[in-house]
Every structure is written in structure tokens, then in C-alpha cells.
Design brief:
With 303 residues, the chain is mostly helical. The protein contains 13 helices and 3 strands; from the N terminus they run αααααααβββαααααα.
Length: 303
């Protein structure tokens, strides 16, 4: 097991330095592989060269017995496969035994989506006569108006917002950069927040992030959850709504309005390898037109 841990430690260093993965992804990889190595130790497998298909099937069965979903099991397999590819790269093993293991069939759940009237109701429920109300309005406008992940939203810096071009530079999974149009409503409240509210929240601190809590620190993931939950409850929307629901709603509303699927995928920053080459050639002006033409927050007129 000690030798396994050395390989494992070297692998974690490799993916952290070479792959540019997010902290959440690194944490998942670490947990998945650690559990697998503990399983090998329990099975008294003395060498990684001895890992075969039967051992892998036993491991997958154990994960299933533990109650893991097909999605989680599939992610575990991907994590371990990546680890074994690293071992091949380091000439520690000759082949990857996971090449012969099929991932379980994943049943994709239809994500929860808010209707356009529900989005409007949530936004209008925010009291913008208060400083934190303006911050909350700006935050939710940006998350929905740009289709951002929660991690992307809390990491936006002042320099990421290109006010004159009406664009935001976003760093997604694996620090991949994309440029997203910001609609007039979102831009209006972000400008108001940065100009009139953010300086008072900062007090004497210096922080690059746009969205801050009342102490002047970077808004956390939990902080965003609590903010959205407050307004969802206020609007009596009795469904499980999360910050990611805003992102699902963004994509759904664009597609329902007639937007091109590839353009929406590019706006979302999806990294589907089979279509990435196509996305890289879509002009930013075209993306702005798609966003302006089909996103409902650009159709409701001036507030």
C-alpha cells in the first residue's frame, strides 16, 4: 500500500500542475482513486500490474452496493482510468486494464428549469432600495443572463468585465477561458452595484472579485445558495431550485427562443471534444446577436 501511495501522490502532483483542474475536480479524483487503492489493499493486490478485469468488476459491484449512482460509478471509472494512463506514461505498467471495462449506462435526468415568468418574479422580488438588494439583483441577473456556473460567478473580477464591449471573460472548468455577452439588464445592475455599493462593502480591503459579502470578502458558494434560496422562498416556488437551475434555465430559454444549439453550447463553455473545433470558429459578434435576439432578459424592455 505504501508503494501505491507514492504513485498516487505523484499522480496528484501531475494532474495539479499539468492538467489545470479545479479544486473540486482534484478533490473528486483524489477520493475516487483513494477508495480504489484501499479496495486493492483489502483484496491483497500487491502490484498495480495485477489489476485485471475481474478485480475491476468486483470494485464496480462494491460501489453499486454502497449505493452510488451510475453517474458516480462512471466518474470513478474515469478517475481510475486517468490514474492508470499516468502509470503507463511513467512506464510503471504496460497497459490500462480499464480499457476493457464498460461504464454503466447513465440515465440523464431532465434538469429543473424555471419558466421565464418565474425568473422575472424572482428578480422583481429583490428589494433594490437596499445595498445588498442591488448586489443580489446584479448577481442573479449575471448568473441567469450569462448562463454561469456558481464557481464562475463568484470568481468574476472587475477586470473580467469588458463594459464597453458588453462582454465578460469567464474562466470555466480547467481554467478554460470563454467570452460571454452580458445583456443590458445584467450590465445595468452590475454597473450600479460596482459604482455605488461595492466600495462600501470593501471598506478598507482590496479584493479583485466583483461579488462580495457584507464583510467585504469574496462571496462563497454557500453564500450564493442562501441568496437564491431566500428569493425562491419569497416567491413561493415550491421546487428544488439551485444556482445551477439558473444556468439550465438560461440554456433552455435560448433554445426555446430558436437559438442555435452549437452557439448555446459555446456560451455555456461545454467541452465536448467532438464539437469543440466547430465552436472555436463561431464569431463573438454572432454570439452577441444570438444572445440579444433570443435571451428573454433582452426582450422585456427597459426596467
Amino acid at each position: 500500500m505504501q508503494k501505491f501511495n507514492l504513485f498516487f501522490s505523484n499522480y496528484l502532483t501531475y494532474i495539479k500542475l499539468e492538467k489545470g483542474l479545479t479544486e473540486n475536480t482534484l478533490f473528486s479524483y483524489q477520493n475516487d482513486i483513494k477508495r480504489f487503492l484501499e479496495f486493492l489493499n483489502m483484496k491483497q493486490v500487491s502490484s498495480l500490474k495485477n489489476v485485471n478485469l475481474n478485480i475491476l468488476i468486483d470494485f464496480v459491484n462494491m460501489l453499486s452496493e454502497l449505493g452510488l449512482s451510475a453517474n458516480s460509478i462512471s466518474r470513478n471509472i474515469s478517475s481510475i482510468k486517468s490514474f492508470f494512463n499516468f502509470l503507463i506514461k511513467e512506464d510503471l505498467i504496460d497497459e490500462n486494464p480499464l480499457e476493457y471495462l464498460h461504464k454503466p449506462k447513465i440515465i440523464k435526468k431532465i434538469p429543473e428549469v424555471l419558466t421565464v415568468p418565474e425568473i422575472e418574479k424572482i428578480l422583481n422580488s429583490i428589494d433594490t432600495s437596499t445595498p445588498l438588494g442591488i448586489r443580489d439583483r446584479a448577481l442573479i441577473e449575471v448568473m441567469y443572463g450569462c448562463g454561469l456556473r456558481i464557481s464562475e460567478s463568484i470568481n468574476i473580477t472587475i477586470n473580467n468585465i469588458l463594459f464597453e464591449q458588453e462582454l465578460i471573460r469567464i474562466y470555466g472548468k480547467g481554467r478554460k477561458e470563454r467570452i460571454v455577452p452580458i445583456g443590458s439588464h445584467a450590465l445595468k445592475y452590475v454597473t450600479l452595484y460596482i459604482r455605488d455599493i461595492r466600495p462600501s462593502l470593501l471598506k478598507n480591503k482590496i479584493r479583485p472579485e466583483v461579488f462580495l459579502n457584507f464583510r467585504g470578502d469574496k462571496l462563497t458558494r454557500m453564500g450564493v445558495w442562501k441568496i437564491l434560496k431566500k428569493y425562491v422562498k419569497k416567491c413561493n416556488i415550491d421546487r428544488k431550485i439551485t444556482p445551477h437551475t439558473l444556468r439550465h434555465s438560461f440554456a433552455t430559454h435560448l433554445l426555446e427562443g430558436g437559438a442555435d444549439l452549437r452557439a448555446v453550447q459555446m456560451l455555456l463553455g461545454h467541452s465536448d471534444i467532438s464539437t469543440t473545433e466547430i465552436y472555436t470558429h463561431i464569431d463573438k459578434t454572432y454570439l452577441k446577436e444570438i444572445h440579444k435576439s433570443f435571451h428573454p432578459r433582452n426582450k422585456w424592455g427597459n426596467l
